[in-house]
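Sync notes, pocket subgroup
Present: LS, DG
LS reminded everyone that the earlier model was apo-only. Rerun requested with guanosine-5'-monophosphate included. Inputs:
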Amino acid sequence: MTIFSKIMAGEIPCYKVAENDEFFAFLDINPVNWGHTLVVPRQETDYIFDLDPEHLGRMAKFSQRVAKAIRKAIPCRKVGVTVLGLEVPHAHIHLVPLQQEGDMNFSHKISDPDPKRMAELAEAIASNFE
Ligand code: 5GP
C-alpha cells in the first residue's frame, strides 16, 4: 500500500480538498506554495502515463475542477500543473497557485507549514469545489 493509499484510507491524516469514487485531492504536506494540491487516483499505479487513457482523461477533468476551486479560493494568476512522481510511486498531479514562475520551484518547499493555515486553505478550496 502506498503512502497515498494510506491517506485515502484514512490511515494517515491529510488536509482533504475533494474526492469522488476514482480520485482524491489533498494539500501537499511540504507545499512549494500555499494551496499546493495533489490529485491522486484511487487505483495504485506508479507512473501516470501507465494509466488507462480514459482514466487519465477523467483524472485531467477532475484536476480541472480542483484547479478552478483553487483559483476561486486563493488569489493567483493561474494554477500551474506539474507531474514529477520521483518520490512517491503512486501517480499524482501537482496543482500550484502561481503569481510568478518562481512559485513553482520544487527545490524550495515550505517545511513545517502552519497547520491552522493549511486547514483553512483546504476548507476554502473544498468549499469552492463544484
Ligand atoms: P513526487 O513523487 O511528485 O516527486 O513528490 C511527492 C510529493 O508528495 C511531494 O511534494 C511531497 O511533499 C508529497 N508528500 C509526500 N508524502 C506526503 C504525505 O504523507 N502527505 C502529503 N500530504 N503529501 C506528501
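DG: The CA atoms of residues 44 and 90 lie 6 Å apart.
LS: Helices lie at 3-8, 53-73, 115-127.
Action: DG to write up.
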